[in-house]
Amino acid sequence: MMGFSSLDFFEFENIWETLIRIAIVVVVLIALIVIVKLISGKLRRYVSKKISDDKVDIKKRTYTVNSVISNAIIVASVVTALLIIAGELNIQITPILASAGVLGIVIGFGAQSLIKDIINGLFILFEQQYQIDDIITVGEVSGIVEKISLRTTVLRDIEGIVHYIPNGEIKTVGNRTQGWARAVIEVGVHYSENIDKVILTLEEVFDDLLKDKKYKKCILERPTILGNGGVDDLADSAVMFKIICKVIPPNQWDIARQLRKRIKNKFDEKGIEIPFPCNNIYMRN
């Protein structure tokens, strides 16, 4: 019969101790990630509850810093854990990468892209180009900012689709909710309508909207007809007016919808016709 030598026993004991240490590292890493996620979520809920809606910029800035710091801690923890585990397994990462020529490839290609993402992410954060909960447009994608890290920006569009955009690919960004915004709508009336009557009717709509407490609090300036009550365009089928209203973002879409609804109802009440495109056909004998 073959028995275990004392050397085999010590080797088995060393392997077992190594596995235990690796397991401890993994458990600590998982616990740290869970704790960071819990603290981050609790901080977000606390800020949402304690900071009023009129201080929306402070809210967004806090959400953004919270997101970036929590993600940075998680990434640093994972990298540290991997290095510790490699050390426990006596794996020398640098010589392996160097001997295989992988290190040069990573630096030449992958690292360049990663460094570009991180640098651009730092500029985005320092310049406060956008924050968590801002509504932005990047290229052909528009949506609300759900998450910002040094490497990526996460957007969710109106259909609920989540878009992951590397920060290094963001060249031009349009922020629809920074500081203030404008509700902009166009209204057309028939050529037979009296322009002065139309303007007076629109002013009545503006007055009614400002009397509504639900919407008055988010309006920064009274709605106006662009051009001091002038006509914006003489279109094919209608005389066009452009209406603008300065609001607290992201209320521009709600205010625009309310204006359209109230203008339609008021025009119906006053007998003002909103035309639709039509074609006149002339037939010769």
Largest sheet, order of strands side by side? 4-3-2-1-5
CATH C-level class of the domain at 181-270: Alpha Beta
Summarize model confidence as the mean pLDDT: 84
- Low-pLDDT ranges: none
Helices and strands, in N-to-C order?
HHHHEEEEEEHHEEEH
Alpha-carbon Rg, integer: 31 Å
Strand portion: 15-25%
Secondary structure tally: strands: 9
Task: Explain this structure.
The chain has 285 residues and is α+β, with helices and mostly antiparallel strands. The chain has a domain at 181-270: Alpha-Beta Plaits (2-Layer Sandwich). It is 53% helix and 16% strand. The protein is built from seven helices and nine strands. It has helices spanning 6-50, 56-88, 93-100, 102-127, 195-211, 213-216, 252-270; strands at 135-138, 141-148, 152-156, 162-166, 173-175, 181-189, 224-225, 233-234, 239-247. A five-stranded antiparallel β-sheet has the order 4-3-2-1-5. Helix 1 (6-50) packs antiparallel against helix 2 (56-88). The longest helix has 45 residues, at 6-50. The radius of gyration is 31 Å and the shape is elongated. 15% of the residues are buried.
Descriptive labels:
285 residues; alpha+beta; Alpha-Beta Plaits; 7 helices
Short description:
By secondary structure, this protein is α+β, with helices and mostly antiparallel strands. The protein has 7 helices and 9 strands; from the N terminus they run ααααββββββααβββα. The longest helix has 45 residues.
How are the SSEs placed, and which strands pair?
Layout: H1 6-50, H2 56-88, H3 93-100, H4 102-127, E1 135-138, E2 141-148, E3 152-156, E4 162-166, E5 173-175, E6 181-189, H5 195-211, H6 213-216, E7 224-225, E8 233-234, E9 239-247, H7 252-270
Antiparallel strand pairs: 1-2, 1-5, 2-3, 3-4, 6-9, 7-9, 8-9
Helix pairs in contact: 1-2, 5-7
